[in-house]
Design brief:
- The protein is mainly α.
- The chain has a domain at 81-288.
- 68% of the residues lie in helices and 0% in strands.
- Helix 3 runs antiparallel to helix 8 (160-179), helix 4 runs antiparallel to helix 6 and helix 4 (82-114) runs antiparallel to helix 9 (185-206).
- It is globular.
Length: 319
């Protein structure tokens, strides 16, 4: 069996991971749904969670649960939920990683053969298989709402950035599915990359492991939004310039609806500002506080060692 599997390994543009992941994906899809993977199409009112009414109901329910739950938990002891939280984050790490690999397998051949502009602006870049991956990524956003439920049950602080980002990203994925914006894969691939690391961080932290790179994870999230905006601003600009101001420099029309483009630009811009503010309040404040504590410490006299030399203080471990 191992030899037969190794015979299939062949690294190429169409198989960047050495094997055709889509073959296994197709089998899994058919096993779960009982339908051929090629039959999938996102259809409003037919596909689950494909209508504005459903999205609105889930969003309202989310806010009722988290804010109602927070009120109830004021008189209750915090739940530990350690092992369940670890398992939750393990599954999201694995799901994000699997989706990321499937996106890469579909995108590399397109980028290699048709180029970047085709992949972000052409109608042909919105393929049936990518639409399915966009939809699965959209469904994962509902699953991620459980992150907030864990915070409520554990009586952790519930910050605006957290519940705004979770709820609006779910809505953003829905809007882009309906808008058929070909550039959708850029923010999704970047987001999945960050989420693999982020949920791994949460999983390890919940297990009691001290992770030193939390600050770098926030920095990576900010870089993600900068790159997102670079791509979607470009696509939106060339679309509007070509459509309404043809005298302005542009690269031609970009696929997608105007509403989806404007919503994406506005929301991702707000994310960038919110994450920069979070970084400033969280990490810059810690540095400032540490400096202030250091300046208020009265130096102690260092005792001489037995050999007459002064004994240097030991260095603190970097976290």
């Amino acid at each position: 069996m191992a030899a037969a599997f190794l015979d299939k390994v062949n690294f190429s543009v169409d198989q960047p991971f050495g094997i055709k992941l889509d073959d296994y994906f197709s089998q899994a899809y058919e096993l779960v749904t009982g339908k051929s993977i090629d039959s999938f199409a996102f259809q409003e009112g037919v596909t689950p969670l494909s209508t504005q009414k459903e999205v609105a109901m889930w969003t309202i329910t989310y806010f009722i649960v988290i804010f109602g739950g927070r009120q109830i938990m004021k008189t209750q002891e915090a739940f530990k939920l350690k092992h369940l939280f670890i398992f939750h984050n393990f599954l999201l790490t694995a799901a994000s990683g699997a989706l990321l690999m499937l996106f890469i397998e579909n995108l590399i051949p397109m980028l290699a053969r048709q180029g970047l502009f085709f992949a972000i602006c052409d109608n042909g870049a919105w393929t049936q298989r990518l639409e399915l991956l966009y939809y699965l990524n959209y469904l994962v956003k509902y699953w991620e709402l459980a992150d907030t439920v864990f915070l409520v049950l554990k009586k952790k602080p519930l910050e605006f950035l957290h519940y705004f980002h979770h709820s609006m990203t779910m809505i953003l994925c829905f809007v882009q599915l309906g808008g058929h914006t070909s550039v959708s894969w850029v923010p999704i691939v970047l987001n999945l990359t960050v989420h693999v690391l982020m949920y791994y961080y949460y999983m390890r932290s919940a297990a009691g492991v001290r992770i030193w790179w939390k600050q770098y994870l926030t920095t990576l999230q900010i870089i993600q939004f900068v790159l997102d905006l670079g791509f979607i601003y470009f696509c939106s600009y060339t679309y509007f310039a070509f459509t309404y101001y043809p005298w302005a420099p542009n690269f031609g029309k970009c696929a997608g609806t105007e509403g989806a483009a404007l919503f994406g630009c506005g929301l991702l811009s707000s994310y960038l500002l919110l994450f920069i503010n979070f970084y400033r309040l969280t990490y810059n404040a810690k540095v400032k506080s540490a400096k202030e504590r250091g300046s208020n410490v009265t130096p102690k006299t260092v005792k001489a060692g037995t050999n007459g030399s002064t004994k240097k203080p030991s260095k603190s471990k970097h976290i």
